[in-house]
Amino acid sequence: MSDERALQHALDVEVLRNLGQRYARAADARDYDAVGALFHPDAVIDGLRGSSTLEDYLELSRNTPPAYEKSMHVLGDPLIELEVGADEATLDTYAVVYQIGATREGGGNSTLGVRYLDVVERRDRDWRIRRRRTELRFMT
Amino acid sequence: MSDERALQHALDVEVLRNLGQRYARAADARDYDAVGALFHPDAVIDGLRGSSTLEDYLELSRNTPPAYEKSMHVLGDPLIELEVGADEATLDTYAVVYQIGATREGGGNSTLGVRYLDVVERRDRDWRIRRRRTELRFMT
Amino acid sequence: MSDERALQHALDVEVLRNLGQRYARAADARDYDAVGALFHPDAVIDGLRGSSTLEDYLELSRNTPPAYEKSMHVLGDPLIELEVGADEATLDTYAVVYQIGATREGGGNSTLGVRYLDVVERRDRDWRIRRRRTELRFMT
Question: Is the minimum CB–CB distance between A100 and chain C shorter than 8 Å?
Fold first, then answer.
């Protein structure tokens, strides 16, 4: 058991690092159950359309007709702050979101520069996002 | 020796994470020996041009005149699945491939959104790709 | 204390991985004190404008009117070379730098493909960049 602490820390960091990548794949698949599973039920999301609860965010996402055919969320490495053994961490992630094939007339592809600022919490061994703030850095 | 397991796991994850970055640099340098060294000899590659053995893939790559002057494979963080102590892992990597300076008349630069789905295996302490599936997500 | 070595290595790799992300945020905020804090005082920077000392590099950065309104440095995962327990490492990082809103007439947005080749050194437990070479791979 003597290597538990180091191993646990390494595994924690991996889980945190994977969170963003799992989000990218869930969002690109428009699988909102999978998106929801990355957040705690009481999570708050400050998005580009204002602040909302997880429930409202997922419902809006499910019910809004997509403005483009597909997307690709390409994330940089997250900047992770996690004390060894702590149950809370922050992730600061730069991402480029490619939106391909606009569904509305006159629309084209667009590229968004986005920054995700997440507070992530471990509850019952399960790391999930408790608060996400999304900042739009640029759009072309 | 008591910290071997944790250290080994951390080192394994690093090797896996570096695989994609080594691929990017080898591909951009058009160094197909270096590309080949990232795969097991019996690897199968399901690429944008169909499925092939490593040998065929490398031969085709070597013999096809490049369609552009240079490339840059910018990879996101891989989504890694590796059990502690296992000899097999999967990597799911988003990448943006910039192709610069088309060599054919009328061609321009292009940007490709690519997803690499790799099965990676450790043989004799050596982690290499055993199967790669490449998906094109977008091209502009 | 038996897990110290593994834990230390994992923490070292995290610090190295975070260096680039901290650079990206400092550069995008045009916070040159924060940029400077990532380098040793005697660091040498071989940039796109030639080789310079850290001091000269920071002074030039502070005194040059920005050619665009904002930037976003989106970095891929660094390729890290670090022996367990060593005090020196190399980082090889691919990045895409988005420059948004040209401040000069006739200018537009531009996208740069950049590669950072860093020699990083630990002094008094503090990992910082001792030498950076910046290569421009493409510009559109």
Answer: no
Strands of C8-125, DSSP E: 39-47, 50-53, 68-75, 79-81, 88-102, 110-123
Q: Which helix (H) or strand (E) holds A16?
A: helix A4-28
Contact between residue A55 and residue A42 where contact means Cβ atoms under 8 Å apart = no
CB B101 within 8 A of CB B34: no
- Domains of chain A: total: 1
Query: Which residues neighbour A56 within 8 Å (Cβ) at sequence distance 6 or greater?
Result: none
Cα–Cα distances in Å, from A116 out to A23, A67, A120, B74? 11, 21, 12, 20
**Are B79 and B120 spatial neighbours (Cβ–Cβ below 8 Å)?**
no
Q: How many residues does chain A have?
A: 140
- Subunits close to B (at least 3 CB pairs below 8 A): A, C
pLDDT in tens, B26-80: 999 999 999 999 999 999 999 877 899 999 999 999 999 988 999 999 999 999 9
Look up the ipTM and state it.
0.91
pLDDT (mean) for B4-25: 91
Residues of chain C found within 8 Å of residue A114, distances taken between Cβ atoms: none
Q: How confident is the model at residue A1, as a pLDDT?
A: 41
The sign of the dihedral angle between the CA atoms of C30, C132, C78, C138 is positive
Domain containing B132: what range? Answer: 4-139
Checking if the pLDDT of C132 tops 80, the result is yes
Nearest of B37, B59, B38 to residue B49 by alpha carbon? B59
Residue B1 confidence (pLDDT): 41
Give the pLDDT of residue B4. Answer: 77
Helix (H, G, I), strand (E, B) or coil at B38: coil
* Positions in chain A whose pLDDT score sits under 70: 1-3, 106-107
Count CA atoms within 13 Å of residue B76 on its CB side: 32
CA dist., res. A8 & res. A83, Å (int): 12
What six digits make up the tokens of B71? 């490339």
- Compute how many other C-beta atoms are within 10 angstroms of the C-beta atom of residue A123: 10
Does residue C112 sit at the A interface (CB-CB below 8 Å)? Answer: no
CATH code of C128's domain: 3.10.450.50
Alpha-carbon dihedral C81, A25, B139, A78, rounded to 10 degrees:
-40
Q: What is the mean pLDDT of chain C?
A: 93
Q: Is the pTM of this model over 0.80?
A: yes
Higher pLDDT, B139 or C107: B139
Give A 10-39 residues with CB within 8 A of chain C.
10, 13
